[in-house]
From TrEMBL:
InterPro entries: HATPase_C_sf, NatK-like_C. GO terms for molecular function: identical protein binding; kinase activity. CDD domains: HATPase_AgrC-ComD-like (cd16935). It comes from human gut metagenome. SUPFAM superfamilies: ATPase domain of HSP90 chaperone/DNA topoisomerase II/histidine kinase (SSF55874). This is Histidine kinase-, DNA gyrase B-, and HSP90-like ATPase. Keywords: Kinase, Membrane, Transferase, Transmembrane, Transmembrane helix.
Length: 325
């Protein structure tokens, strides 16, 4: 036989042709399967995924050329063609198997990292609540002294000193109240941990939470990844500004409590580059920067939510909208 268009002369040639077509069909279906599964991979970047598809695509092209070209299946070709096709097929099967294993391990590593973040958040929340309780006990211990002092000053008519003591009490009460943002332990620990980081870097940190926030539909690990990544990105960007260093976070219910809205705003000065629909950094470590937004975007899609990113002249903002079912 000298070509597919001339027909198959022997049963061996028919078998070889069937092998080539079956191999190409298998690889084509496998590639389609991997493409459809791509949306489920949180840890696999487009570059890695493209490299995976290069070998099967090249194999399909090579086998297609062999099948449709005028190659004689006589002599050594009768052995070399099926052996080569079989080796290519086995190599592709091995590559797909290794890639599936790689994806599985990457997802496990990502999950372990998120579990670690959750444990760290829970520990931080416990330590912070212990500190708040100690401050409350110290305040309650001192309040008796304040009352006795105020009573004595009032008897002596020292109204100005009484006023100063009461103002001092008000400041201490306000500082104690600022220590707790919400009753949700995980969210509260995330917000409190970033508050300490913002204070250490002299960044204005404002959190506004609406009443009756619905957070039960979010998995705790996903909440840590979403809120934690966005706050970390905001603090990192705000730290680079000279004036107006601030980070703001607002969460509230909308549309008669059918929507959960999260807004994150921060000042920034470094211009951002945009690759299609994804923001990347102009820093030297640009390969690792932007992964936070990329991961958040995939997690938001997991809950059928919407993520809007806006980069103004001096303010960068991210708005998330989740539908409450």
């Amino acid at each position: 036989m000298t070509g597919a268009s001339e027909g198959f002369g022997t049963e061996i040639e028919k078998t070889l042709a069937l092998l080539l077509m079956s191999t190409m069909t298998f690889l084509f279906i496998k590639c389609i399967n991997q493409v459809t599964r791509k949306r489920d991979y949180l840890t696999i970047e487009n570059k890695t995924f493209t490299v995976l598809l290069m070998l099967p695509t090249a194999t399909i092209i090579i086998l297609g050329c062999v099948f449709y070209s005028n190659i004689s299946f006589e002599g050594m070709n009768r052995v070399m063609v099926p052996v080569g096709a079989s080796l290519l097929l086995l190599t592709n099967i091995f590559i797909f198997s290794v890639f599936d294993r790689f994806v599985e391990k990457s997802e496990e590593v990502k999950k372990m990292d998120r579990l670690y973040q959750k444990s760290r958040a829970e520990i931080a929340n416990l330590q912070y609540m212990n500190k708040v309780n100690e401050d409350n006990r110290a305040f309650l211990h001192d309040i008796n002294k304040f009352i006795c002092t105020v009573a004595g000053l009032m008897e002596e008519g020292e109204n100005q000193e009484v006023k100063e003591i009461m103002e001092h009490l008000g400041v201490r009460i306000q500082s104690l109240q600022k220590g707790v943002y919400c009753e949700h332990p995980i969210l509260n620990s995330i917000l409190c941990e970033r508050k300490f980081l913002a204070e250490s870097k002299n960044i204005s940190y404002k959190i506004t939470l609406g009443n009756d926030l619905r957070l039960d539909f979010l998995e705790e690990l996903d909440m840590i990844s979403i809120v934690g990544n966005l706050l970390d990105n905001a603090l990192e960007a705000a730290e680079k500004t000279k004036d107006g260093r601030y980070v703001e976070c607002r969460m509230y219910m909308g549309n008669e409590e059918h929507f959960l809205v999260m807004e994150f705003c921060n000042g920034y000065v470094v211009p951002l580059l945009k690759d299609k629909d994804r923001y990347i950094s102009t820093k030297r470590d640009a390969d690792s920067h932007g992964i936070g937004l990329h991961t958040v975007g995939k997690l938001v899609k997991k809950y059928a939510g919407i993520m809007r990113v806006e980069a103004g002249e001096r303010e960068f903002s991210v708005k998330l909208i989740f539908t409450i079912k």
